[in-house]
Write a structure and sequence with these properties.
Length: about 525
């Protein structure tokens, strides 16, 4: 069986997860679920980046031991991922012993390869980024990502000889255009590497928090070197050779555009140095903006994902983010568009389709699905739309065009609703000689609902299972996209139930200009 290994960034637990973090994790979850439905042996890793100075500072500011603080914060992440139905197979925390051991192992390999040397670093350090900046990287003296004042730092560190890898990196991007996606991000990376490629510091003189450098216990491993290593330690590097051989190299690292340099320049060079194969793809998504600003830890509480899930349910949140925010560009979160999407797409289009289909079956056939009769042009057009929705969904998901895949799926939702209007089952029901036609129409629309449940499985898994349950079908299972998407697979004579509306309409609040 083919394997598929994908990862999210490991998040800093120096604040609770916010809607931007949730977006990245949900997008990754959609892909993981899709791969499982396609029958891949899938491993989906997420986790926390704990050995960072920003985490240590935050803990100490609150008078807490950093490890206790991380343990507390980890619960918020685990809790949110559970509430959002994130289907990760691994949750790595970089304070775990196996990770510490393997991070040291990787660094030792780079050292043995002659790529680590001692030097003095003097530069601006941005704590939220955990990265050094040169004078000309700063914008008005501030970090270009966080708009925060960096700290001037001067210390003796170990360095990784990144500059040695310039040619190999450029050759790698050239030979593997899929290594950084979307394409325009790869161009940015190529430009970065073509310019001056500075060696980077891989240790810090901090003895209170972090993983000691294997060849100098006076220093700890720089948090980015340590953090990137999670992608191999999470699947057994230095611990479980069999698991490592099974899943590595990763098929995809999903990240935000803010951390491209680390993933697309530092990480491949580190792996080249240590003689470890390179991941297939780094997919960099954009940022969610809210009221004109990037949603971030300091502003995260404006849109609290915990409250959103409590109020609207996991699927509404997952759906909104995947439908409204493109997975390659920046996108805008607004409450107005949330309510619009919910009411128009979920309550009206999808919810009504399921409700009217199952209600008509109850009304006209006592809830027992009739067998279809001969096919008309209208029926064929519904079947064709289903086929093209399946193809569009697969194409979009394969190419990380997660919103385009959803657009394709929606063509079937729209067509199925139109099909009902065009055939007017309520009229057919009045004419006894149209009984067979009525049965055919209701069979076809029920079959469209079944196919929609499978297609929506990666996005709104709870709703998909609820739809299948109403049709008397088993819940989503691994491999079902391979054998279950054939039109006409739904066997007649089964009992279909109606149930409550899947997405009751929301009362829309008054919006001010700024929402
Ligand atoms: O950078 N819109 O952790 P982090 C979309 N620990 N995505 C967003 C976002 C927004 N407004 N804000 C954050 C780190 N993200 C490191 C990573 S990996 C080896 C180490 C997402 O907690 C986005 O995916 O700052 C971004 O890359 C990630 O959160 C940064 O999370």
């Amino acid at each position: 069986m083919s394997t598929y290994y994908l990862t999210t960034p490991i998040y800093y637990p120096n604040a609770k997860p916010h809607i931007g973090t949730a977006f990245c994790t949900i997008g990754s979850d959609v892909q993981a679920r899709y791969r499982r439905l396609q029958g891949y042996d899938t491993f989906f890793l997420t986790g926390l980046d704990e050995n960072s100075l920003n985490v240590e500072r935050q803990a100490r500011n609150q008078g807490k031991d950093p490890q206790d603080y991380c343990d507390e914060m980890a619960e918020f992440f685990r809790d949110l991922w559970e509430r959002l139905n994130i289907s990760h197979d691994g949750f790595i925390r970089t304070t775990e012993e196996h990770h510490k051991h393997a991070a040291r192992l990787l660094l030792q390999k780079c050292y043995d390869a002659g790529d680590i040397y001692k030097g003095t670093y003097a530069g601006w350090y941005c704590l939220p980024c955990e990265a050094f900046y040169a004078d000309d990287d700063l914008v008005d003296g501030k970090c270009p990502v966080h708009d925060a004042e960096p700290e001037w730092t001067e210390e003796e560190n170990y360095f990784f000889a990144l500059s040695k890898y310039q040619d190999r990196l450029l050759a790698f991007y050239e030979e593997h255009p899929e290594s950084v996606l979307p394409d325009f991000r790869r161009n940015e990376v190529v430009n970065m590497v073509r310019g001056e490629l500075r060696d980077f510091s891989i240790s810090r003189a901090n003895k209170t928090w972090g993983i000691p450098v294997p060849f100098d216990e006076e220093q700890v491993i720089y948090v980015w070197f340590d953090a990137l290593t999670n992608y191999i330690t999470g699947v057994g590097y230095g611990r479980d050779d069999e698991q490592f051989a099974r899943y590595w190299p990763a098929d995809a690292h999903v990240i935000g555009k803010d951390i491209i340099r680390f993933h697309c320049v530092y990480w491949p060079a580190m792996l080249m140095s240590a003689g470890v194969p390179l991941p297939t793809t780094v997919w960099a998504h954009g940022w969610i903006m809210f009221r004109g600003l990037k949603i971030s830890k300091s502003r995260g509480t404006d849109v609290d994902p915990f409250d959103m899930v409590d109020e609207f349910g996991a699927d509404a949140v997952r759906f909104y983010l995947m439908r409204e925010i493109p997975f390659d560009q920046d996108g805008i979160f607004s409450w107005e568009s949330f309510y619009n999407r919910y009411n128009a797409d979920l309550a009206n289009d999808l919810g009504n389709l399921v409700h009217r289909t199952t209600s008509m079956l109850a009304r006209y056939f006592d809830g027992v699905l009739p067998a279809p009769g001969g096919e008309t042009a209208l029926d064929a057009s519904l079947r064709d739309t289903a086929q093209s929705a399946i193809e569009g969904a697969e194409q979009g998901l394969e190419s990380w065009d997660l919103d385009a895949a959803l657009d394709s799926i929606w063509t079937l939702v729209t067509r199925a609703n139109q099909y009902i209007e065009e055939n007017a089952p309520w009229e057919l029901a009045k004419a006894p000689d149209q009984r067979e036609r009525l049965g055919t129409v209701l069979y076809n629309v029920t079959e469209a609902v079944r196919i929609l449940a499978l297609l929506l499985g990666p996005y709104i898994p709870q709703t998909a299972d609820a739809m299948l349950d109403r049709l008397g079908e088993p819940p989503l299972a691994a491999g079902v996209w391979q054998h279950g998407l054939e039109w006409g697979s739904l066997t007649p004579e089964r009992t279909v139930t109606t149930g409550k509306p899947l997405f009751p309409r929301l009362e829309v609040p008054e919006f001010s200009e700024s929402t």
